[in-house]
Amino acid sequence: MAEDEGASPRELVVEACRRDQPHLIEDVLTAMPEKSNQEIAAFFNGVKDAMGNYALHICAMYGSWLLPITKKLLLPDDVMDTLFDIQYFECDPLTRTDKETPLHLAVRYANDKNSELGRQMVEMMCDAGCDPRVKNKHGQKPIDIVFGDYTDIKLILRNAEYIFTEGVQKDSDDSDEADGSDSDN
Predict the structure, then answer these.
(1) Which of 9, 74, 99, 121 is a plausible cystine mate for 106, CB 3.0–4.6 Å?
(2) What is the CATH number of the domain that holds 138?
(3) What is the mean pLDDT of each run of 10 residues along the chain (185 residues)?
(4) Are 128 and 78 in contact (CB under 8 A)?
(5) Is residue 176 assigned to a domain?
(6) Domains in the chain: how many in total?
(7) Which domain holds residue 115?
């Protein structure tokens, strides 16, 4: 049997994302012992399926994330967690067709398939640094496509957007004198 038979590393990552199989991601990482963190991230950031969706998009489309209740059963990490653990991993790539982020697709998953799992994915993605301010090609942020009944998802996205906005303001106002509104004294 030749060594080149079987799935390529890219195919393994796509399959891992579709079926929430973190051990496949670990297998690919184990096969990269001589690679730098930047090279590893470049590989994972470049993985796409046949439709041009990146790894995190695939996870969001298929709901490849364990609910906290299953995590308490000491099951292994899920693929999303494993991807977010990769240093320099890009968490806001855009789809080819609608220019949507994985956060957009997690909201769509909540709207169309499983609201609780979708909410959990949105929360985890926001906690991991996904930017809720990014608009798709239709000018919509993830919060703009949340169904009306899902106020908890809207709250998560609003809070994350506030945190991002405040972080941007602090960075841009470092040399300016504070207006006192942030001060506790």
Answers:
(1) 121
(2) 1.25.40.20
(3) 73 94 92 94 96 94 68 61 93 95 96 93 94 97 92 96 76 43 42
(4) no
(5) no
(6) 1
(7) 9-171
